Every structure is written in C-alpha cells, then in structure tokens.
Amino acid sequence: MKGKELLKDYVFAHIPGYAVAVLLIVVANVVQSALPLVLGRFTDDLQAGSLNYDLVSSFALLLLGIGITYGVLFGLGQYQVMRLGRRFEFEVRQKLFSKFSTLSEHFFSKQGTGKLLSYVTNDVQSVRESISNGVTQTTNAVVLLLSCIVMMVIGDIPLSLILICISPLILIPLIVVRIGPQIRKRSMNVQESLAGMTESAEEQFGGIRVTKTFGTEQIAGRRFGEKVDLIRSAQLFLVRLSSLFQAVIPFLGALSLVLALLLGGTQTLNGTITLGSFVSLTLYMRIIVGPLQQIGNVINMMQRSGASLERVNRLMNEEPDVQNEENAQILDKPQEIRFEHLTFSYPGSAEPALKELDFTIAPGQTIGIVGRTGSGKTTLVKLLMRIYEPPRGSLFFGYTDIRDLTLESLRERVAYVPQDGFLFSTTIRDNIAFSDREAPIEKVETGAKHAMIYDNISRFPEGFDTQLGERGVTLSGGQRQRTSLARGLTKKAQLLILDDSMSAVDAVTETGILDNLIQERHGKTTLIISHRISAVKHADEIIVLSEGQIVQRGTHEELLRREGAYAIMHRLQEEGLRHDEIE
Amino acid sequence: MTKSNNSPSTDGTSTKANRQTSFASSTLKLLMGYAKPHTLAFVGVAICALLGISAELLQPLIVQIAIDDHLAKGEGGSSLIRLGIFYLGIAIVSFIFTYLQNNLLQYAGQSIIARIRKDLFGHISKMSMSFFDRTHSGSLVTNVSNDTETISQFFTQVLLSLVRDGMMLILIIVLMFSLDPQLAAFSMLILPVIFVVAALFRSYLRSTYQQARSRLSRLIAFTAENLSGMGLIQSFRQEDEQLGRFTEQNRKYWDANLKQIRSNVLFNRTFDILGNAALVLMVWLGGRAVLGQSMEVGVLYAFVSYIRQFFQPINQITMQWNTFQSTTVAVERIQRVLQTQPNVGEPLDTERVSLDKTALRGDVDFRNVTFGYRPDRPVLKSLDLHIQSGEMIGVVGTTGAGKSTLISLLNRFYDVNQGSIEIDGTDIRKFSQSDLHAAVGLIQQDPYLFAGSIIDNVRLFREDITREQVIEACRFVGAHPMILRLPSGYDTHLSERGSGLSAGERQLISFARILVFRPKILILDEATANLDSETEKLVQQALASVSKGRTTIVIAHRLSTIMHADRILVMQNGELTEQGTHAQLLASGGHYADLYRHARQSGREQLPS
Predict the structure, then answer these.
(1) Cross-chain residue pair B236–A491, CB shorter than 8 Å
(2) Domain B22-339: top CATH class
C-alpha cells in the first residue's frame, strides 16, 4: 500500500539508529529481569544461613550493578528512540511546509487553515508517538515478559505455576485495548464540551453590548450555564469509565498475587519451590504489570496513528492544481494582455463567475474595474495571477497562452495588493521589502512614501524595524492597507494589481496615493479594482462588471455621459443630491 | 481609566511579598468557600481513598506474614489460605473504593467548577460597559475557561494526590516503623534525598517543557500565518525564503525537544537508579541484620517492597506542586475579576423611580454635563442639550469631538462628573439599569450576531416574544425578502461571523431587534458606515420606518446619513458649536459648511453644492 511510505522510508533510512536503540533496550531489560532472581537467591541463602557479611555486601553490589546498568542502558536506548522520533517529526514538518507552498488557493479554501495546521501538529505528533513509544514499549514489554519467564524458569519455578499466576495479568492488554478507545472517545467529548463553553463565552462577551443594551443578561447567563452543565456531565460520564480502568489494573495485579500466595505458598510448604523462588515469583508479578499495560496502549496508539499517517501521506501525494506545463516559456518582456472570450467557473460550481470576457490591456495602460460585490472583479485577478487556471485559449500574454508561461516568470512580473491588507508578523521593513528582503532601506522608504504610510511608520519608536503582529504593534485597517500597498509598489513589477486596496483609506490620503501612483506607474501597466468610483476616475479605461460580464467600458467622462450601470452607481453614491433637488 | 473600585489587594502600594502571601491565603479562602457545601463529599473521598490504597499498602505486609509465620516455619496450610482469601477481600474493597473515590471527587470538583463558572459569568455580565472597553474580551474568556479548568485540576489532581499519596506515604512510614524501627530510621535518610532530587528535577523539567511549548506555539502561529498568506507568498515568489524561516522555527522547536527528552530520560532513570540504590541499601543493612538474628526474612522482604513504593507518591506529590502554582495564579486572576465592582451603581431603593415604558414620552435633556474618562481631561464641557420627544437628531464632528461619549453617557456606560442627564425630566441615575436599557436602544457600527437562528437573533433568545412578532418586525424593516432567500429562511443558523450575511443585512437584523424590543429612544452610532451604496439605501429606508414615533439620535461621519435630520448638532472638542437644519448650517458658513465642502471636494461622497 502506498499509504505507509513516509514512515517506511524514514525507518529504513535510520535502521542502524533503531537497531542500536533496540539492542540497548533488550540488554537493559534482560539485565533488569535478573533482579528478582538475585533477590530470591539472596533470600534462600539468607534462609539457609550460608551467608556472611562479605557475601551480603557482594549481593548488594551485584544488585547495585544491575540497577545502574539497567538505568544507563535503558536511558540511552530510550533517548535514542525518542530522538529519532522527534527527528521524524522535524523532517515531516519540513516536507509539509514545502508541500503547502506548492498548493493553490483552491486547495486551501477546501481544507481550511485549522485542518491544515492539524497536519503539522496532531497528525505528525501522533505518528511520532506511535513510532517512539511503539519501538520502546513493544521491545520493552516483549523482552521483559519473555526474560522474566525465562528467569523464573531458571530460578526453578515450575512453568505451570508461572502461567497460572500470570493469567489474570494477561487480561490487562485486552482490557486496555477494549476500554482505551472508549475512554478516549469520552475524553474527546469532554474536550469538545470545553471548547463549546469557550466558544459560548467568546460569543457572549463579544456580544455583551447587545446583551446589555437590550437588558437580556439573564438569558445570556442561562445559555452559558447550559454549556457549563454539559461539561459537568461529560466529565462525570468519562470518570465512570476511566476510574473503572484505573481500579481494575491494580486489582488484576492483586489477583495474581493472591494466586502466587496461595499456590506458590502451598508449593513452598510442599518443598516444590524454595522460599527464594516464592519471593522472586511475587516480585516478578509486580514487574510485569507495567509492560502489559503498555502493550495495550501501543496497540491503541497504532490504530490512531494509522489514520494520521494516511492523512499526511495523502497530503504529500496531492497534485498541485496549478503547475508549470512541460516546455513552459518564460515571460521576459512587457506584453499586452488579451482576454479572449474568457468564461470561467470555480471548480464544483455550475454558475460561471466570468462570462465571455473579451478585452485587451496594452502595456503601460491603467485600467479600472468596478462592479458590485460578486460581480467577478477578484476572480479576474486570480486568473491573471494563475491562482486559478483559466481555461486554455482564453487568456494570453502577447501571443502566448498564460498557461504556457512558467509560474515563476509570470509572478515575477506581477505585483499584487490584496483587499485585506494582509501583513506578516515580522518587521514593517521585512513586510514592505517582501519581494526582495535584502532591499536597501532607501527603497523601502520610497515605497512607504508613495503609499503615504511613511509618516506613520516614522512615528513609531523603532520606525521601520517595528515588529508587527501578536507580539508587536497592531496597525489600523487603513495603515495595514497602505503598508500592503507599499509592499506591492516596492516590487516595481511590470503589472500592478490593486484589488480594492484603498477601501479603508480616508479620502484625502486616497487622492494623494492616486497622484503618486500616476507618477510612479508611468509606462507600466496598472489594474485598479474598486467599488468606489473615486479610485478609478483617472484610468485610461474603466470596465464595469456585473454578474461576471462586461456591461460597460470607456473613460470616466464617457461612461458618465451614457445612461447605464456606471452612471447609476455614480448617482447611488450621490443619494443626498436627489433629495436635495426635490426639496 | 478609573480603577478605584478594586480591592486593596490589587493596590499598587502593598509590597510584592505581602501580595503573594495574601493571594496564597485568599486562594485557599476562595476555594474553601466554594468547597464548603461539599464537605461531606470530601470526607467521603478521604475515607474512600484510605480504603482504596489498602491493597497496595498491605501487600508487602501480607507477604511478610506469609513468609515469616508460615513459609519460613513450614507450617499453617489452612491459615495461609485464610491469608490469601483475606488479601483477596482487601483487593476487592480497594477496587470498589478506588472507583467510588474517583467518581465522588469528580462529582464534587465538577459541581464546584460549574458554580465558579456560572458565578464568574454572572458577575462579568453585571459589569458596566466601561469595564468591557478596557478589558479585552479574550482575557475574560481565558478567565472563564482556562483559569477555571486549572482550578478543576486542583480539585481532581492536587487534592487527590495530597490525600491519597500523602496518606500512602505516612502509612508506609508507620508500617515500616512498626516492623523494625531501626531499619525504618535508616530508610528515612533516603526520604529527603528523593524529595530534593524530585523537586530539583521538577522545576527543570517544567522549564524545558514550557520552552518546548512556547516554541511549538510560535511554530504553529508562524505556519498558520503563512497558510493564510500563502497566496501572497506565491505571488511574491517567496516560497524559499519563507521555508527558510520555517526551518529556523522548526529547528528551534527540535532543539527544545531534544533538551526536553534529555531531561526527561535523565530524571526518570535517575529516579529508577535511586530506587534500586535504596533497595540495595535495604538488602545490605537488612541482610546484615538478619544475619545478626535481629530481624526476620519476611520483614526484610516487606522493607524492600516498601522502599520501592516510596517513590511513586513522592513523585506524584512533587508533580502536583506545579499544578498548585498554576492554580494560585488562576485563582488570583479570577479573584481580580470577582472583586471588581461595576463602576455604575444601581439606585438606592428609596430613590428609585420606576420607568413605565408605555407612558414614556422620550424627552432627553443633558443639563450642564461635564465628563472626562480621566477627571483632569474633560471630554464634554458644560454641555447643555435638549431633545424633544420624537425628534430626529444628527450629530457630526471630527474623531474625538465627544460624539460617542454623548451616547455612552445616555446609556449610562459611565456616570457624568458634573450636571445630569434626564429622561422625561428624571435623572437617569434614578432608574434601574435594566429599565434604562429597555428605554434606550442602541445600534452600533458592527452589528453583533449570536450563534442561533435568525428568529433567536432578533428576539435575543427571549422566548416570550413570538415568531410572528419577529417576522412582522423583519417585514417592517425590509429584511423579510432577504431572509426568505436564505436556505432555511428564519431558521437559518447564524454565527458570530455572520454566516454569509453582508454588513447591511446584519444591520437590518439589528433594526428588527429594535422593533421587537420597542425602546422609546433610539441611538445609531455610525450604523451606516462601511455599507456599500445599495445596502445603505435599504438601511436608510429601515431607519426611516424605525425612527417613527421615537426620539432618534444618529451619529455619522458620512454627511449624507444625517443631512435630513430635524436638527444637526456639530461637536468640536467636547462642545456643541453649531446646531440647526442642514440648510441653516450651510447658510451660516461655520464648521459644518467646511466639513460639507471638504467631503464634496474629496470626491468620496457625491454631495450637492
């Protein structure tokens, strides 16, 4: 099966490492299992009176030697296995992140950030745990169990006695495998109810103004209380099973001791076994409980991690939606951009988002695109950037189909300023110089000046080195948009796309930015998308989109003169005017 | 901001040491207060715990008796069987009571936590609005969920460990001394060693654990951010650069992991070796004692077993110390919230005037009001403003002019420093807050939606408001067609983020709320900002119908929103500088006329000249 290759490759690549670890653990356990045997011998010798003070000391030294050898060897083996497990985690994370950066927006929108993050955290972790603990604990348990039995036999304890005494303990892994998953299910239930309460608290505190202004605090309290009670019952449901589990394992341990006491005791009295053997038998029964419990845990863990491993593998085998075609060409010089009867639907959607788009952008032109939310403005940009693949034969750079261009060369020549003003949690400088992190500060400052954010940034104590994000400064919506604009301008690309990127900027600043833009972008192609007419007024051509279609095109003045969508939009923004005229 | 109502324990003048002791004791006080109704349950837990540990505790003793009284002497077949059956009995008792103890403890603990959570929530929702202005709602959520969860661990883990492991430890010591005082005295030497090793390692383990945690959360935050910004990374071709930064984070986490593994393995193995060393000590000392005939073989066996049993409870107890510390911090945080009193108090019973909603006219008077968030910096200065029943007032002014403050005062989110605000001639401080809030409705810029159906969002989960009333209200504000277009109509489930409703559609729902709750005075605080032109039109129409028969105050920075008000107020630096109709203000050529000209010239708003 293909699903296991990630893990298999890793383990195969680290066979010597694992072999050393397993060897260490095996030796450690064999050594440890001698401990009760030695204690048994000691008891017998003590009982027989064949000991002297020196012999007592050498017994003590032998036991000390066993203890230290076991501790050191097992520690080393355990460390080695855990280190390898973490290494696996590290490497898989690297691979995952590289993989993410090849995948397209379509994939991300399908999966959601939360789900993708759980690949990097939960899934990787669960696979790692299963190999670390799997190796350590399985080796541990099997070797310890076997060597304990061997040691008991060496210690002249009849096999039948051993097996009878062990029999209750054999139930332990069975119980763990049976109850374990159920406990897990119930504890996930607890986690969910906790998350539900957190969510409810977030919701209630977020809406506290509404609650208070309408005086419905009582109702809010009641709704929150319901969530709290859910946690309580989930917890009690869990504890009913988990405490049974906690109680039953020592009970089975005690049971096997009762058997050892009764049967072993009788045989000691009969003289079948010595007192020392009896002592070591009881000690062995205690040692075995732990490993048997671990075997059960490992089985449960393996089952869970199997699903995780498969998920990670599936992701690694995901084909990117958008990738270079064979013999893709390099976009090396400014070209006209031609839309030829472009019709596009999002994957899985029946309704086309763009219909029969047909127009050409000459190099150096400034084009404005206006239209309502959902009219297809942003879709157009996504196709131009190949965030989604346009159908073949509908979008050309010069005479080359956009799909025959390499993604690298295309994106190299396009600068994109998104609507949301997304910034990374790093310094402002790093954000503005995003296209070239080594850019000199002068270049960054020029970009900031053009985007009219320079003054704001200089006012921060640390200026351009100000850290943004959770552990730094939070910018206002308008400041974010302008910083993001500076980032786009600093790239100095042949084609600049502004996707409604000044919506949170005030009017005076917007005018200033547009003036800078006209100067700065002279001779280069600029595409301005906006729902506000003021942002596109100066464009060489304005395209009005409605429901994915071009309904009007022309300059601001031309469009105003004609009766149509643009003029209506213009008037809608002038609502006050008409009232005033009537009065 | 005023924090004068906080308790003396948060007073900055008390020394740090003082604070810590007072918190530690008040931690216990608070928890004890909540635990008190469950005293019986806790006594039960202690008894159950005692019976629950009996099998483990008595096991070495029973083997000792078997060895010394029977096996070593070679006698007593039937009494050996009795001993075995006795032990079986104890095992069963242990089994039952361990089970009971866990359930009982969890029951008591969970009941306490549920109580704390509800109390905390109730207390927070009583706070005045100024509290929510200065307290981030995220930190309140943390108080209610994480902090209480830590306390829950205190009850189910710390307390249990103290009782169960503590008893275990003490009883082992007692049994050892009763078996052989001399050897017991020797083994007591080991006890402090174990404690010291465990305690030292614990704090080191904790620090490595926390380091790994914080690096992991940074790694996750980095990944989350990069996933959200992947489109940008790709369009700026920064995949390699970002991978490099990811590697840096990933490597840091891996380093922290190795450190954690090392310290964990070292701790566990040291403890192991220490355990074996203790055993060796017993064998050596005990062996010599048996040789000297001062001790029996079985007693030695019991000692060897008990000394190994020492380690588990000590390990557990030191582990709980960390949880206990987190509990203190959590309780401290919760207490700080519980001790904060609402800034705005309810009127005394003797002064209270009840507000009859049906008889309310809706006159609003600001009489010589002075107010500042800090008394030395007044935001409103001697403001006099009289609004008549049914009037529609527009308020404009630059940011910081005091527009929103006006609203906050009328809603009594804050109390005035001087002067008074009256509704129908009665000082609003004489109304109960629920009466006041029922009389004054507020619509804000970003309408908040709760997780629930549209019906519930309009009636705010009040079940005495019927579905028909809600639908009628929605029809009235023009939201009905929009709602019918949704997949499940009025039963469509909404969430905080709005589930596909546009800002304007959400605003329509908040207008419907007003119609259902029928406040006599209505305030709109930038309620039409951020809407696109078309939805704004819908909202304007809704406003027109909602404001009928109500005193309405509209705050807006878009002049088109308030141009048609009965009266426009212009605020500058906390003072009322101009008022009148649109035409009057334009004619007077003051600040309003300036604002109007600027808005027109910027092209942002298409306004008539």
Answers:
(1) yes
(2) mainly alpha
